[in-house]
Design a protein that fits this description.
Elements (H helix, E strand, L loop, with lengths): L1 H6 L1 H22 L4 E16 L5 E21 L1 H68 L5 H36 L22 H11 L1 H22 L4 E12 L8 E15 L7 E15 L1
Antiparallel strand pairs: 1-2, 2-3, 3-4, 4-5
Helix pairs in contact: 2-3, 3-4, 3-6
């Protein structure tokens, strides 16, 4: 079973699907975490400014730069919260489905092992039958040579021997096929099969149909996976519906610029902004956003 867990291609695929499912919870939680973005730009400019009186200021070539760092933390976002819960449900569904694949692997390993073992035992049985009929054939030949047997008995024994030899070929082919199926699951060669030891089975406690149905719904990983998939669908409805509600977020930004526009030529500034952003969808499929920002800012200008 451990070899099958490490090498069986079907189970390794299930492990990859499970690893993918674990990311759903992380992706959903990320929508509630702060986001940080930064922009840095450096430009080379060439400008000539003419005012209303016709005077021209040829500034030639000069450099300008801007940089900003912004942090945004959601405070109230129904859509993001539903996405987070949806990620939790999808991850739980993936975990339950993986437990089902583990149980299926147990069944497949035992089924392949028992079939290979049974086919090996059948080969041994047919070999014993062939040995027995060979001894019988030798006895018939001796009796015929001594005048006690008949040629009919000898021919019948020879026919039976050939028939058993054909059965042996079929049994060996069946055993080879069964062992190959087991090796495909284990990912390694199988040279010897240990016989199964009787005993150790746990007796099932009889109960009513309702008891068994209740146990199945409480413990069956496939049912649990379907329940979690249904929960993820409910959260998808909540997520889509949450897009029609207002969103509130905390914003913090720090920026600096130097000669970034013609009106701020040879001027530099630093800005720090702390505020709360309210985003309200106004109508229908196209959302017209009314942003109301309550913020406290500090500006520093330096002219040269």
């Amino acid at each position: 079973y451990e070899a099958a867990r490490a090498n069986d291609p079907v189970f390794r695929g299930a492990m990859a699907v499970r690893q993918e499912g674990l990311e759903y919870q992380t992706i959903g939680r990320a929508k509630l975490l702060p986001t940080i973005s930064g922009v840095v730009s450096n430009n080379q400019n060439q400008s000539r400014v003419t005012d209303a009186g016709g005077r021209t200021d040829n500034r030639g070539r000069y450099n300008s730069s801007t940089s900003s760092l912004q942090l945004r933390q959601p405070l109230y976002d129904r859509e993001a919260w539903a996405a987070k819960e949806q990620g939790v449900a999808r991850t739980a569904a993936s975990e339950a489905l993986f437990r089902l694949r583990e149980q299926e692997l147990m069944v497949r390993v035992f089924e392949a092992y028992s079939k290979a073992l049974l086919a090996t035992e059948e080969v041994r049985l047919v070999e014993a039958q062939l040995q027995s009929v060979t001894e019988l054939l030798r006895s018939n030949e001796q009796r015929l040579a001594q005048g006690e047997g008949t040629r009919t008995d000898l021919l019948e024994t020879q026919s039976k021997q050939e028939l058993i030899r054909a059965e042996l070929i079929v049994a060996q082919d069946r055993a080879l096929h069964a062992r190959g199926a087991l090796q495909a699951i284990l990912g390694e060669s199988v040279n010897k099969l240990e016989r199964l030891v009787p005993g150790g089975a746990v007796a099932l406690v009889p109960g009513t149909l309702d008891d068994w149905r209740s146990k199945a719904f409480d413990s069956n990983p496939e049912v649990e996976s379907l329940n979690q998939t249904l929960e993820a669908a409910h959260q998808e409805v909540r997520r889509v519906d949450g897009g029609h509600y207002a969103r509130l977020a905390l914003r913090l930004s720090i920026g600096s610029s130097e000669s970034d526009t013609t009106s701020t030529y040879r001027q530099s500034s630093r800005t720090t902004t702390v505020g709360v952003q309210l985003n309200v969808p106004m109508y229908g499929h196209v959302k017209y956003n009314a942003d109301v920002q309550l913020q406290k800012s500090r500006h520093v200008h330096r002219a040269s």
